[in-house]
Every structure is written in C-alpha cells, then in structure tokens.
From TrEMBL:
Gene3D superfamilies: Transcription elongation factor, GreA/GreB, C-terminal domain. Residues 1-26 are annotated as: Disordered. This is Nucleoside-diphosphate kinase. Keywords: Kinase, Transferase. The lineage of its organism: Bacteria, Pseudomonadati, Pseudomonadota, Alphaproteobacteria, Sphingomonadales. InterPro entries: GreA/GreB_C_sf, Tscrpt_elong_fac_GreA/B_C, Tscrpt_elong_fac_GreA/B_fam. It comes from Sphingomonas oleivorans.
Amino acid sequence: MSVAFRRESDEEHLEPRPELPIPPGPNLVTARGLSLIEAQVKELEAALAAEKDEEAIKAIRRKLRYWHARRATARITPPPTGDEVSFGSRVRFRMGKGPVRTVDIVGEDEAEPEAGRLSFTAPLARALIGAGTGDLVDFGGRPEAIEILSVGPIEN
C-alpha cells in the first residue's frame, strides 16, 4: 500500500509543549530563594526517579529544565545595608489611611504576595524601591499614596 494512504498516528501530529517561560532580566535571589530553588530541583529529581508513566516523565523533565535554568542563573544578592528600600528589604508602610502593611522584596520565584513576599518586579515593589523611612511615594497614579514607616533587611 502506498505511504500516502497509510493512517498516521495521532502522536505524529502533536505539537511539542513549549518550555516554561523564564522571566526576562536578572535572576536575583535571596539566600532563602536559592534554597527554595534547590529544594524544588531535589523534589523534581526524586519524582522523576520514581515515575514510570512516559507523559508524567516528560512533564517533570520540562519543569526540571526550568528549575535547572533558574538555579544556573541565580544571583544571590546580599542583604541591604542602607536605609533605602532595595532587593532583600523588609518594608513597613501605610497606603493612605489604611492599615500598616509589611512586605519583603524578593526574587520572582520566591514571591508569594499573600504571604507578604513581593517580586522586585511587581508594581508595588518598584514604587517602593529607592524610598527611605518617612518618604511619601507615588503609586497607582496617586501622588504620595504610600508612607514608608520603616526599612530593614529581611530577617530569616
């Protein structure tokens, strides 16, 4: 039978899954952030060693490629020493007449907004960076929307 008439399997037409997107820019991490990356790599390597299903293996390998790239490009940033907000800072602030909030400025893979850990690329973090205690910061199109109450290094 001619090759033109043979039924091709559905597998031949599947598009490969794209790689997990790696955020642009530097991969700044805190010491905690690097340990989280290391833990993720170890967990995925253990899962890969135990997995038997080929599709699950492909998914794990895809995640591992992401985390290996993040580990290879990680740049540990020392804790800040000044009184200005920067990467690795813990910031206490108030927005308008709202409650006092505290956030840590961390790397993208370490960010957990609900836990008060903001990526240094987040709009709020970008607004805070460079400000010092007592400064009023513009945010969200409002002038002097944020009052910086205190700035210090993240305490682990």
